[in-house]
Amino acid sequence: MNMPRRGPIIVAIVFVSAGILHFVIEPFYLAMMPPWLPAHARLVQVSGIAEIVLGLGVLVDGTRRAAGWGLLALLVAVFPANVQMLLDAIAAHASTAWITALVARLPLQWVIGQWVWRVTLRRRAAAP
Predict the structure, then answer these.
(1) 88-123 per-position pLDDT tens digit
(2) Nearest to residue 62, comparing CAs of 1, 127, 10?
């Protein structure tokens, strides 16, 4: 197994850390779950485990591409929770700064997805 470049290591650290946080501060994640989704606690746990497993998968050459696809799917799957967090903040008359941060967070998912794609899925040109 080759040692991964810096990009996969950083992606792994970010996603594994986020996955661990699903268990450390579970109430934070439960609060952002859209009410129309069932089994909130189970979904928080499953998404946390997925972030950990897929984040670690990015570190292994043989699983990097599959982990990349999994992380992209996960980013799409958790997007409704980000929208719900914004809707809840608006309903609670949160500060303008917080609402602005939550609005800015929505396109950030796209940026993170682009980063995951670049690190895990983009074909690199062969060295001359």
Answers:
(1) 999 999 999 999 999 999 999 999 999 999 999 986
(2) 1
State how far the Cα of 28 lies from the Cα of 96, in Å rounded to an integer.
Answer: 20
- Decide if 81 contacts 109 (C-beta within 8 A): no
Q: What share of the chain is helix, strand, coil (3-state, %, to 5)?
A: 75, 0, 25
Reported in sequence order, the residue ranges of the chain that DSSP labels E, i.e. its strands, are none
Which residue type sits at 9?
A: I
Q: Cα dist. 56→12, 20, 33, 90, 110 in Å? A: 6, 12, 25, 36, 21
Task: Give CA–CA dist 58/93, Å, rounded.
Answer: 39
Enumerate the domain spans of the chain. Answer: 6-119
Residue 125 is predicted with a pLDDT of 44
Q: How sure is the predictor about 4, in pLDDT bands with cuts at 50, 70 and 90?
A: low
pLDDT digits (tens, 9 = 90+) for 60-85: 999 999 999 999 999 999 999 999 99
DSSP state of 38: S
